Automatic annotation (TrEMBL), chains A, B:
SUPFAM superfamilies: lambda repressor-like DNA-binding domains, Periplasmic binding protein-like I. It comes from Parablautia muri. Gene3D superfamilies: 3.40.50.2300, lambda repressor-like DNA-binding domains. InterPro entries: HTH_LacI, LacI/GalR-like_sensor, Lambda_DNA-bd_dom_sf, Peripla_BP_I. Keywords: DNA-binding, Repressor, Transcription, Transcription regulation. The keyword Transcription applies. GO terms for molecular function: DNA-binding transcription factor activity; transcription cis-regulatory region binding. Residues 3-57 form the HTH lacI-type domain. This is LacI family transcriptional regulator.
Amino acid sequence: MEVSIRDVASRAGVSISTVSRILNNTATVSEKKMLAVKEAMEYYHYEPNQFARGLKKQTSNMIGVYFPNGADSIFEVSYYLELLKGIEKVMAYQNYSMVLISESKETESRKKHTPKYLEYIRQKRIDGLILSGLTNKSVEDNADVVWQIMEEGYPVVYIGKRVHKEGLNVYAQFEQYNVQMIEVLRNSGHKKVLLFMARSHNHYVKGVMDRIHSEIPDMEIFLRVTDSHFEPRDHVLQDIKEYVLRRGCTAVCARGIEDAQILLSVCAELQIKVPEQVSLLSVEHRYDAGTLLYPQVSSFYVPAKDMGVGAAELLIDYIENREVNETSIEYETKYIERNSIRRL
Amino acid sequence: MEVSIRDVASRAGVSISTVSRILNNTATVSEKKMLAVKEAMEYYHYEPNQFARGLKKQTSNMIGVYFPNGADSIFEVSYYLELLKGIEKVMAYQNYSMVLISESKETESRKKHTPKYLEYIRQKRIDGLILSGLTNKSVEDNADVVWQIMEEGYPVVYIGKRVHKEGLNVYAQFEQYNVQMIEVLRNSGHKKVLLFMARSHNHYVKGVMDRIHSEIPDMEIFLRVTDSHFEPRDHVLQDIKEYVLRRGCTAVCARGIEDAQILLSVCAELQIKVPEQVSLLSVEHRYDAGTLLYPQVSSFYVPAKDMGVGAAELLIDYIENREVNETSIEYETKYIERNSIRRL
DNA sequence: CTGTTAGCGCCTTCAT
DNA sequence: ATGAAGGCGCTAACAG
């Protein structure tokens, strides 16, 4: 049996407006009625119906989270997981909830399919949107619509390199820390380095390589651009054989701890000692993730969880019309030296 | 500017009911009006307001997912991640979305705080709920309410050992495969085994130990019950020193690949060879996760993703009043032999 | 096949 | 301080 504001009102012997006032404490109500209403609410376990409330207020207290890069990778790549953790944390204390929006598979029916996250916005299911990884096709196809939405002032925060002048934005210095990784290795005397990058970052690749070539011209970089965020183990095995054993790379840069772990396992299999025979430098998105491996791996720490927190807070502030003093927040990357790099 | 069904109707020169009928294709409409309406919908980028629709139908096409064990662990333990993947997959093709429900921190204000997932149910935000890990306090405190909801026929599927006769349920044979792990080791000649279990599984511990003692009496089990789903590295280091080096365990059972990875790294640090000096047997929730390590670790595979799929499908079938032939699905665990166990 | 209309549950003026 | 009443956008009878 569904209980509505009416039931509460009648049990408490007041009108529904009084109940409503108490719910939203939008006016003072006499102590007596107050108590009666509270009693009735508890009695019925009353909770206001969100459809009705939303119909009036047009707000759902839900925010959408859309990471396009394939459903599975969201739950495998620690970068995304840390972002989610951060977002989740904010949701918990701000009394919002997050809706994970996944692209619905085949909607062949309509040719020009509206992506789900736009649908959710127009349907008012969500009060705001957190986006990351806009290199994905489904978004590029709809870039104009996304922009339009941002321009209309719809609350959107984008995590990553800014794609549009409007909207809120949170990012780390991807290009910069990739260059710094090479610098670190150069400073330890390395000259030939194997560098992994994900194809989804391919719009960064040129920038990174150009800067390396101009700023650190004496380095020989072997670039491996791969489809996913981390490589299947047997590919990595081949890569190590090719670039470390055959071509003589003395160091490898991993994109994340997942990569680093596989690299270490492959090296163990090939009986290549780290760091004695090959050095390893990684990126870590979870703080101290590098200490879980052996040897502990030196890393650039990208504070992904903080970025998630920042994104969510920014979004909610904006939604609730609070002051948003910055529309774009940059997060610092920190180098943590451990024991996986050998000084040549 | 918000566009409503009325705008569409007037531009198409029809009544709102005609538009509604087309939206829900709930009756046949003349070709001509059909086209006019479609045109108007595209023109306005019309999407039906979910509040209004929900107010009428009392259904949101969202399902709640609540895993109590602390927000962070959800995004760290591959068991939960695989469940999420499975659920997510179903959401995508069933046109539902999932709301991750996290306990809101301190709501000291009300003493007897209604947990958020119950709130969401009563507020009609979600059409059904997927729960896992009910050992958590916040749920135990509200066990009566949860049961009441299940008895009222509210759609809930519980992932794990059934806690109540009502409701839908999906589970793996936790007790059984834990015993089988010990059997596998016994069959390879091991007599002293270090076994990790999570505190959140402590209601299983007695059952597992009793069965081991009665079915495999010649084994000496050292049980380590830990707070989280996987141990901090330095704890593991101490454990290995204590149980393997000092007390002479010849094999270790890990609760998941996260554990196994740390164990391998610790063994590397202590220069203990796997499997030559100590054998390792793990549980894996992601298929073939054990092959990413070196040596590849023998595992009991728990099909967590399939369980997530099963849970979500069961739930949606139930919500949509389709036939639910089984109310409880058991998933088989599979032993995969690799290279981490030495025959003594 | 199509239009008119009565709510769905809540919030919010407007009176009192 | 409180109650009555209109309307948010949509669906589903009901009438034609």
